[in-house]
Amino acid sequence: MGSALSLNTVTVKEKWGLAECIEGCARHAIPGISPWRDVLHAMGVAAAGRQIRDAGLTVTGLCRGGMFPAPDAAGRAAAIDDNLRAIEEAHTLNAACLVMVCGGLPPGSKDLPGARAMMRDGLEAILPTARAAGVTLALEPLHPMTCADRSVLSTTAQALDLCDALGDGVGVALDCYHIWWDPEVAAQIARAGRRIAAFHACDWLVPTTDLVLDRGMPGDGVIDIVGLRAMVEAAGYQGFTEVELLSRRWWAEEPDHVLATMKASHRC
Q1: Which domain holds residue 113?
Q2: What is the pLDDT of residues 95-127, one digit of tens each?
Q3: Domains identified in the chain, total number
Q4: CATH value at residue 231
Q5: Of residues 66, 71, 165, the one with CA closest to residue 119
Q6: In what order do the strands lie in the sheet with 241-243?
Q7: How far apart are CA 266 and CA 254, in angstroms?
């Protein structure tokens, strides 16, 4: 499995801000970092960019854009404005991509096709700006359990259909936690080819006690992460393996221990 490791900052969100994450990556010789926008804003985009560059880190992604569906036109316009800001931030950080979590059903809605249309409309609205900035929009399919509240984009095939429709400047972010179950995953990874913009590693625990906040450290669960990594490499991806743990268990640990464990386990 690829040796270039990246820390997604949500992995240690309870105890470290972005400055500590940058320092921790440098201390543990982890060459990549993927900030979430909340910690980026808390530190300041310009200051974060300087510290990341000074530490010699690669920004493997910025989390996140998206969240397009809304109950009214004002909400949809606000989402587009926020995504335009996210594109500017990703450009400032020289991020490899802007990870797109596209949003679920608007509150009170049962109109799934309508929400998916809003998602596509939002992507079409921001894509010219992303292209001009040189920022790849990495569509992240999320497990279908999140369809109602987080993402109406549920499969790699669905994401690639959007890539085909939208054209240049759009790729996919493939997260083991969200795609491992898919019987079409091997064929769709091969189809994705060089449109794979990010590879996220974490594990599915059995039993899983929380469908959002109980991700496992690579090697602790049932996902064949090595196999998935081999598939993305065969498709042409040679980028980082980004460990992204939303986990109450790991949030309670000392971050230096988390990073050391990541280094030991991300190839499992």
Answers
A1: 5-265
A2: 999 999 999 999 999 999 999 999 999 999 999
A3: 1
A4: 3.20.20.150
A5: 66
A6: 58-59, 32-34, 5-8, 241-243, 196-201, 170-175, 137-139, 98-101, 62-66
A7: 18
